[in-house]
Amino acid sequence: MRRRYLIAGRVQGVGYRFFVRRSAGRLGVTGWVRNLPSGEVEAEGQGSEEAILAFETELRRGPSGSLVTDFNVTAISDELESVTGFAIR
Fold this sequence. Notes:
By secondary structure, the chain is an alpha+beta fold. It contains 2 helices and 5 strands; from the N terminus they run βαββαββ.
């Protein structure tokens, strides 16, 4: 299962990307996360359905000091891409 996320709120300058990378590693999710010039964070995750659902829960929660006010999820095809690891871009 592979999904793309767009997260808005107080998600830059609070360690959000590092929190996402740690959560992904703990859950066995591969992909990436990056800050956008708009102040939002974009991420992509791939893993089992159970891992992705747990990952989404973590993304919605964020680290202490963050505040997620908008959370958009888009399902994308995982058939053509094999991703390893989790990167901060």
